[in-house]
Amino acid sequence: MADRDPRQEPEETHIGSDEWVAQVGSRRRQRSGPLGRLATGWEQIPLGWRYALVLALLIVAPFATGSGVFLDLIGSSNNAFILTIGARFLVFALLAIGLNVVVGYTGLLDLGYTAFYGLAGYLYAYSSSNFITTAGGLEGVHLPSLLAVPLIMLATAGAGWLIGSVSLRLSGDYLAIVTLGFGQVFVQIALTATRVPVFWRDRPVNFTRGPNGINRLDDISLFGFTFDQTIDYYYLLLALLVLVFVAIYRLNSSRIGRAWRAIRDDELAAEVMGIPTGRMKLLAFAIGAAIAALAGSVDAAWQSNVVPVPRYSVLTLINLYAMIVLGGIGSLSGVVLGAFIFTVLPEVLRSITLASFFFYGFALVGLWAVLKARHFALVVGGTVVGGIVLKLLVRLLRPSLDSGTLDTGAWLNRLIQSWLIVPENVKLAGNIVTIVAIVVLLAAVLLRRRPWLMHTLLGVGLYLFAFAWETRLALEPSATRILIIGVTLVVLMIARPQGLLGKPEVRVT
Amino acid sequence: MQEFLSLLPQTLLNGLTLGSVYALIALGYSMVYGILKLLNFAHGDIYMIGAYLGYGVFIMLYTEEGALILTGLIIIIMLAVAMVGAGLVSVAVERFAYRPLRYAPRIAPLISALGVSFILQNLVQITVSPRPLSYGSGTLIAADANFLIGDLRVHASRLLVIGLTLVLMLALTYFVRRTRLGRAMRAVSTDLDAAEMMGVNVNQVILATFFIGAMLAGAAGVLVGIVFFNIRHTMGFIAGLKGFTAAVLGGIGSIPGAVLGGVILGMAEAFTSVYLSATYKDAVAFVILVLILLIRPRGLMGRPLVQKV
Q1: Is A16 exposed, middle or buried (0-12, 13-18, 19+ CB in 10 A)?
Q2: Nearest to A102 by CA among A113, A115, A114
């Protein structure tokens, strides 16, 4: 974890006002090493071919995961679960692209974005289910999808326009807070509008069915084909994603896109240049909302229900923001990559074995990235040898300390468990060591100016983390995977604040 | 009308208790925002850490045989440990998760804060317990320790919350207005770069701000445990959202504003629960937030923004 305070890094001085020129050294450094070479190789493929390659992968993915070889590998009888994750990734990719229009291109911090997603879900429920029944014999509303989805997109875009125009006089963080308020009000209404007195009926009306939500929605059907399997939705969503991706890509390189980015970089200057800033911001809001509506209605049809919490709550919003920031805010392929990582990673971490590989891999790669090669060998080798020596000493002198048992996970876990000292009260020791390990690691970061001390602490920390992992973390996969995601977010923000595929912000002051 | 009047004093008291807690949390948000323009989304979890540290002291000193020492003393030790512990955690968070991002794009520390929030919550879930823990009703302060003020029954724990909040506010005001570090804090919040050029140790001031904000939140965590008994590892999320709302209501960056916002929010929730329905209290809180911001975009006591070119 390098301290990125530019005032402490003399080699990154600002030459004149052009930071791009000034940062050439750090960019060159990023291109070295195997990862850098890989990135350079990837960029030598023409842009169109790169997109085509990714698209082809996404098209054949369901066949690949449905093949016998793959199913044997994950020990499952069918790939329904994988398809579900795939379709969820596509929904989130659409949402992330929409949010990116508002936040990434136009620079408006919209924290109420999930309200549009939810609004579209509820509108789809009203227009395509048996929910609206009246005494007059109306048995639900069932609009054809080709009519319902565009109407919902239009209505939600209108809502985006409306909320945008109400909150347009606010800027920056205040806009964020008001939109967060709108988002919260939406969830609260969805949760509580179950007994609303209305003028046209003498009984109160249940608008949302509260936390249970509305279920049994119609499937999407186009030209006589009904999408009723997850794989159907996967390809429908993939087609929609390609459409939206191309549309937003084209839009971003048009006058409108340039206007958005001008507003993001300097609103006052943009206004002086004659850009109608108010209208452009509203347009961004409306387009973002329309994309959310597209994702929301197809998603509601796929899941066949709408449930306010947690699907439309702040948690989803946090997930979306993590996706777009992780992938690189303002970069279309970046936010799709972010959506992919954030839907797939939590699922991978559900299995102890995979999570263990990820954990130890993460630790080793992290050490390898921050240390010089020989120091890395020294720390890892020292830890392994030190662990063995410690184990022998304890076995010889105080065998009672190593009397506990651990018996979980795959061969990797068993190997490491046989290397650790396992005391009798494993759980308590594990809890304490978890906290101690974090403190030791943070101390190592603080003491990076003293190499010997730092390397010793890193070795000790590695040992303690292995202990904490085997005794506690691996046993609580549901909490640990969120813990890992949290750590990933913090570390990634520090190492690469612009995200994986984002461009570093050039700020001329 | 008769019913309205008879419920009024109790509702006001509830609102004030709740408002005090919100105000204590809001102050941390507000102070940090005033200096770094950072929405510290991990602040709610610092409050949760405070509640858990208080619980740790509680079970150590209040064993099954009863209290080991005077219960009043236990409460004081709980508060002290929670405040200092929460402060240290918050300082570590600033040092490791925010300081490297001080010159990064605005959204990077925001995401880092979310990451920290995930880390703290799940660490507590793994190492302490995924289930709610209880301070126990009537253990620290007897259930019938009421004071009668006119017709109104005031439970001692509520008096403790309101009284302690008042004391902490006064101490904070004194600190910010009269001490050297407080003056440095105000200078940094007015203009960080200028203050640094004038020789203010900005890093130290920022650490102090995080420490003090977290102390108040830690105290709030213990107080909530004493009044409402139950604590759990996810409690910081909603409380943080409310504290944040309160800070914005009053005008983020303003200390009296945070207190005012907290009390307004607490009152609004108490009144909605009593006179409308408890299910609407969160909705009402956010509707009030949106309305006030649309009318006064800088909050009730916030300074108007002057755009410099």
Answers
A1: exposed
A2: A113
A178 and B249 Cβ atoms separated by less than 8 Å:
no
d(CA A10, CA A497): 20
Min distance B100 CA to chain A CA atoms (Å)? 5
Chain A residue with minimal CA distance to B307?
A268
Residue A133 forms beta bridges with which residues?
A139
CB contact under 8 A, A442 and B96: yes
The dihedral over CA atoms of A445, A446, A451, A454, expressed in degrees to the nearest 10, equals -60
Q: Is the dihedral of CA A38, A41, A45, A48 positive or negative?
A: positive
The CA-to-CA distance between both ends of chain B, in Å, stands at 56
Q: Does A310 touch chain B (CB under 8 A)?
A: no
Closest CA to B244 of B67, B9, B26: B26
| CB A469 within 8 Å of CB B94 | no
Supply the Cα-derived Rg of chain B in whole angstroms: 20
User: Between helices B43-61 and B235-250, what is the axis angle to 10°?
Assistant: 130
From B141's Cα to the closest Cα of chain A, the distance in A is: 31
Alpha carbon A196 to its chain centroid, in Å, reads 36
Question: What helix, strand, coil percent values describe chain A, rounded to 5?
Answer: 70, 5, 25
Q: Which of B50, B56, B58, B62 is nearest to B25 (CA)?
A: B50
Contact B103 A5 (CB under 8 A): yes
| Contact with chain B for residue A435, Cβ under 8 A | yes
Q: A392-417: buried (b, 16+ CB within 10 Å) or exposed (e) per residue?
A: eeeeeeeeeeeebebeebeeebeebb
Distance separating alpha carbons of residues B162 and B165, to the nearest angstrom? 5
| CB-CB neighbors (< 8 A) of B108 in chain A | 325, 493, 497
Q: Which residues of A touch B118 (CB under 8 A)?
A: 482-483, 485-486, 489
pLDDT tier for residue A71 given thresholds of 50, 70 and 90: low
H or E stretch covering A215: strand A214-215
Confidence band of A422 (pLDDT split at 50, 70, 90): confident
Residue A9's contacts (CB-CB under 8 Å, 6 or more residues apart) are none
Integer CA distances (angstroms), B144 to A265, B12, B228, in order: 61, 20, 15
In this complex, which of A182, A321, A445 lies closest to B290 when CB atoms are compared?
A182
Query: In a 3-state reduction of DSSP, which class is residue B1?
Result: coil
Residues in chain B closer than 8 A to A3 (CB atoms): 99-100
For the cut 90, the answer to whether the pLDDT of residue B82 exceeds it is yes
CB count in 10 Å sphere of residue A50: 14
* Nearest beta carbon to residue A473 from set B33, B37, B126: B126
Nearest CB partner across the interface for A185, out of B108, B111, B290: B290
Rounded CA-CA distance B29/B22 in Å is 11
Instruction: Report the gap between the CA of B46 and the closest CA in chain A (Å).
Output: 16
Distance from CA of B40 to the nearest CA of A (A): 12
Query: What's this model's pTM, rounded to 2 decimal places?
Result: 0.82
The closest CB to that of B122, out of A109, A318, A482, belongs to A482
**Cβ neighbours of residue A358 closer than 8 Å, sequence gap 6 or more:** A348, A349, A484
Which of B101, B103, B119 is the best substitution to test chain A (most A C-beta atoms within 10 A)?
B119
CA distance A235 to A230: 9
Q: Which tops the pLDDT comparison, B86 or B2?
A: B86
What is the torsion angle, in degrees rounded to the nearest 10, for the CA atoms of residue B243, residue B55, residue B118 and residue A347? -130
List, in order, residues 6 or more apart from B288 with CB less than 8 Å away: B249, B264, B265, B268
Set of chain A residues whose Cβ sits within 8 Å of the Cβ of B252: 173
Question: What is the average per-residue pLDDT within A479-488?
Answer: 83
Which one is predicted more confidently, A3 or B112? B112
- Whole-Å CA distances, B75 to B58, B60, B212: 8, 12, 20
